[in-house]
């Protein structure tokens, strides 16, 4: 599989360290609010990546954190802990908020067929791991203690801006406007590994540490949780593009300084879901959730298809019109699958050809829009329906659009409607008309058609024979 690597700015052939196991880490949600559909775009595309790797024959171990402490209002370590903001907003404890929004996140993932990672670890579970890493960084002179906090010293690095060579102004993306400069920092880009002092003294969750009672910085969580479950060498680290700087840049700085060697080979960044006013974000307050889409009558699968129709390295613009188009496309796709008849034997050679086309779309830097086209190609293919159904079921292991179940539902509904409308007398008249036509008794055929018309029944001639419906 070729994947674009944010580290090299190139598409590279993916080669895991261990051919038998791909180690994948994903930045998890900050659970102070519902995930919005922008966040979920990132999780959908990461889910497809994991499934595409599995489809290609790899074993994958995927780990994700749950950020329940340390993610401050600004990604550049200033402001209040987002969890505390959420707790105050709802007049609940931080742990109650964390539990509630973690459950809500996984409920949304279930609705969107996003598989739960093999390991899900709340940040508050790993305090000893952070203390161990911070201690070593201090011992080796990569970190310093100032004004009550422990900072990573970015001047010890050969290169800090690992993802790009832009100037500092361009890289201020993760740093919100209006946040004060921290005067304890020796260098502008130094970041907090452990806080004991903050202007926000009502921080709810604190732990004892060699540097005083405090709490971890956000970036250290992902480094430690990844190493705890995946060891010193990571194959793929994934996240939204806004995480590249400063979050992932800082993760690399501290992880590689701690380990003394390269940590992760491939960085997979999903670009943003935007609205007409810019990036959808939780902190802006106005955002769309899966539940809201459902309330408006959308099947969450329409949103998944909407995401799959575009490449993960392009910004995706959300509008209701775009979602309507995806919903309609989904409905039509399912209806076409429902019309396929599971008869005959699967043509293995034809199936292998269809699969190859699908796999080559995934292998081309996870080109999901081409993979969606591969679904339509199956419907148009010159093979029997059993083969088409086998191909679609196979592809849906990766696309996870519920295609087979949704088609079955349509078939069942159609059968129920037919049963509800069944009328043996009308069936007999339609059969008599068919016979009359066969006998070239046109007068009789017309008479029956007129009689049915008078009774409010319309005959529809189809390649499968005459059908009728009430008008
Ligand atoms: P958070 O819960 O804020 O920590 O974000 C969870 C994930 O969603 C991270 O990987 C972010 O990079 C990603 N993300 C945030 N906003 C968007 C957006 N508008 N579109 C796509 N991904 C996003
Ligand atoms: Zn992270």
Summarize the structure.
By secondary structure, the chain is an alpha/beta fold. The protein has three domains: 2-270, HUPs (Rossmann fold, 3-Layer(aba) Sandwich), CATH 3.40.50; 293-416, Four Helix Bundle (Hemerythrin (Met), subunit A) (Up-down Bundle), CATH 1.20.120; 421-470.
CATH superfamily of the largest domain: HUPs
Rounded average pLDDT: 91
Strand content: 15-25%
Strand order of the largest sheet: 5-4-3-10-11
How would you classify the helix and strand content by structural class?
A: alpha/beta
The tally of beta strands, per DSSP, is 16
What CATH architecture label of the largest domain applies? 3-Layer(aba) Sandwich
What is the terminal separation in angstroms?
54 Å
- Text of the CATH class of the largest domain: Alpha Beta
The description of the largest β-sheet is:
5 strands, parallel
Number of domains: 3
Runs in which pLDDT lies below 50 for 5 or more consecutive residues are 169-178
Rg (C-alpha, Å): 28 Å
Supply the number of helical segments.
15
Describe this protein's structure.
By secondary structure, the protein is of the alpha/beta class. The protein has 3 domains: 2-270, HUPs (Rossmann fold, 3-Layer(aba) Sandwich), CATH 3.40.50.620; 293-416, Four Helix Bundle (Hemerythrin (Met), subunit A), CATH 1.20.120; 421-470. Helix content is 45%, strand content 15%. The chain has 15 helices and 16 strands. The protein has helices at residues 37-55, 82-90, 94-111, 127-139, 218-230, 244-259, 290-295, 300-308, 320-338, 348-363, 368-380, 385-399, 403-420, 424-438, 442-454, and strands at residues 2-5, 10-13, 22-26, 60-66, 119-122, 143-146, 149-152, 191-195, 215-216, 234-240, 264-270, 273-275, 278-279, 316-317, 457-462, 465-470. It has a 5-stranded parallel sheet with strand order 5-4-3-10-11, with helices on both faces. A 4-stranded antiparallel sheet has the order 6-7-8-9. Helix 4 crosses helix 5, helix 5 (218-230) packs across helix 6 (244-259) and helix 8 crosses helix 9. The longest helix has 19 residues, at 37-55. The protein is elongated and about 100 Å long. Mean pLDDT is 91; it is low at 169-178. It binds adenosine monophosphate (AMP) and zinc ion. Zinc ion binds next to loops.
């Amino acid at each position: 599989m070729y994947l674009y690597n944010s580290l090299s700015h190139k598409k590279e052939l993916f080669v895991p360290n261990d051919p038998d196991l791909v180690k994948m880490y994903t930045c998890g949600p900050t659970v102070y609010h519902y995930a919005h559909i922008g966040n979920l775009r990132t999780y959908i595309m990461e889910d497809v990546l994991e499934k595409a790797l599995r489809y290609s024959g790899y074993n994958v171990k995927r780990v994700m954190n749950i950020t329940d402490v340390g993610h401050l209002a600004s990604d550049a370590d200033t402001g209040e802990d987002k969890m505390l903001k959420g707790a105050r907003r709802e007049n609940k404890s931080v742990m109650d908020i964390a539990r509630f929004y973690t459950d809500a996140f996984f409920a949304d993932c279930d609705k969107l067929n996003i598989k739960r990672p093999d390991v899900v670890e709340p940040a508050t579970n790993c305090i000893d791991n952070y203390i161990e890493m911070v201690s070593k960084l201090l011992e080796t002179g990569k970190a310093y203690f100032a004004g009550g906090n422990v900072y990573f010293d970015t001047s010890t690095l050969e290169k800090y801006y690992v993802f790009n060579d832009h100037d500092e102004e361009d890289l201020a993306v993760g740093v919100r406007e209006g946040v004060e400069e921290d005067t304890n920092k020796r260098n502008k880009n130094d970041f907090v590994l452990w806080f004991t002092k903050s202007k926000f003294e009502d921080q709810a969750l604190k732990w004892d540490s060699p540097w005083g009672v405090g709490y971890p910085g956000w970036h250290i969580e992902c480094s430690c949780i990844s190493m705890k479950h995946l060891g010193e060498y990571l194959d793929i680290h994934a996240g939204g593009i806004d995480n590249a700087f400063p979050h992932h840049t800082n993760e690399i700085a501290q992880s590689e300084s701690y380990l003394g060697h390269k940590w992760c080979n491939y960085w997979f960044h999903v670009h943003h879901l935007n609205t007409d006013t810019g990036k959808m974000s939780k902190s802006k307050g106005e955002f769309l959730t899966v539940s809201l889409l459902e309330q408006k009558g959308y099947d969450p699968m329409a949103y998944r298809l909407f995401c799959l129709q575009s490449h993960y390295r392009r910004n995706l613009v959300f509008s209701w019109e775009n979602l309507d188009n995806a919903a309609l496309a989904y409905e039509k796709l399912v209806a076409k699958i429902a019309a396929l008849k599971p008869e005959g034997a699967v043509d293995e050679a034809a199936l292998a050809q269809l699969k190859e086309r699908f796999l080559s779309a995934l292998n081309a830097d996870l080109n999901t829009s081409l993979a969606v086209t591969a679904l339509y190609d199956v419907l148009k293919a010159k093979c029997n329906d059993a083969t088409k159904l086998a191909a679609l079921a196979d592809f849906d292991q990766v696309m996870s659009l519920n295609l087979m179940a949704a088609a079955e539902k349509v078939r069942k509904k159609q059968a129920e409607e037919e049963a509800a409308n069944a009328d043996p007398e009308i069936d007999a008249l339609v059969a008599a008309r068919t016979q009359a036509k066969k006998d070239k008794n046109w007068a009789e055929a017309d008479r029956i058609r007129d009689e049915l018309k008078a009774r409010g029944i319309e005959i529809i001639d189809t390649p499968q024979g005459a059908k009728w419906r009430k008008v």
